[in-house]
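Handoff note, outgoing to incoming analyst
You'll be picking up this chain. Sequence as last confirmed:
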Amino acid sequence: MIENKPKTAAVQAGGFVKMMRTPDILELLETSPLALVLAAVIALRARFRPGVSLKGLHPGEAFIGDHEKYGMTRQQYRTAIAFLKKHGFATIKSTTKGTIATLIGTRLFDVLSESGQPTEQPTANH
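Most recent structure output, in case you need it:
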């Protein structure tokens, strides 16, 4: 018998997340790889549709806090949060529903892109 498991919110939502090819992302990978993992989790889980969700999330916001699901200890998770906040990559707020994170700008990921396609087409030389 095939078991029907519920899909995660990120899988059900579909859509695209653009990873930005910037010096910031490469430096983050070298300096604090777990902070990059957490940023990726935020990007993948971020609400990208307009309006407020039933869970109370606005576009660009994501619930985090289940650090075991992405291979972090509690201390690694806290350190990653502190790094993202300190360097202006994300905002974090605690609510009665859980911890909500929002990536600041598009230095690492673009989660609110409508099409998910590059804005510039590559030339024949690339």
